[in-house]
Predict the structure.
Amino acid sequence: MKMERIANVRGVCADFLKTASHFYEVEDCGIRVLTARPLKVREHWTTELFGDYDPNSLLIRVWMRTAVRKEMTSFGTFLSTLCHEFCHHLDFQKFGFADSLHTRGFFERAAALYHHVRGTPPKQLVWAPVSGGRWRIDWPRTNRSAH
Ligand SMILES: [Zn+2]
């Protein structure tokens, strides 16, 4: 990543996704690694800060630099994004959901996958309610409770 060898990064991502798809017995998904976030964001793609997923083409895209300041994404954030997008893939392909929403269960699954891949102990996620009956992860409290 540091040397921006896109083909190498892509190869590792593809291996990881292939292994994960095989484990969960779902279709393989495509992977595209980009240096920067594409300007044109397509409809119906789920778009994050560092990645997106298209349920129609089963394509995950991740990018290595932030859109605004062009700073390099950290390894942890990059891997976390990859796991997150793969969980969108699972929502459609494994669970047959009509849509893939950022529910608490979704974040728990993404976190479990991330910590399994890194070999780090999973953190107890601390939730904070936001408007409309939705939830977000309280990262400061989540990280404090991990120590
Ligand atoms: Zn998402």
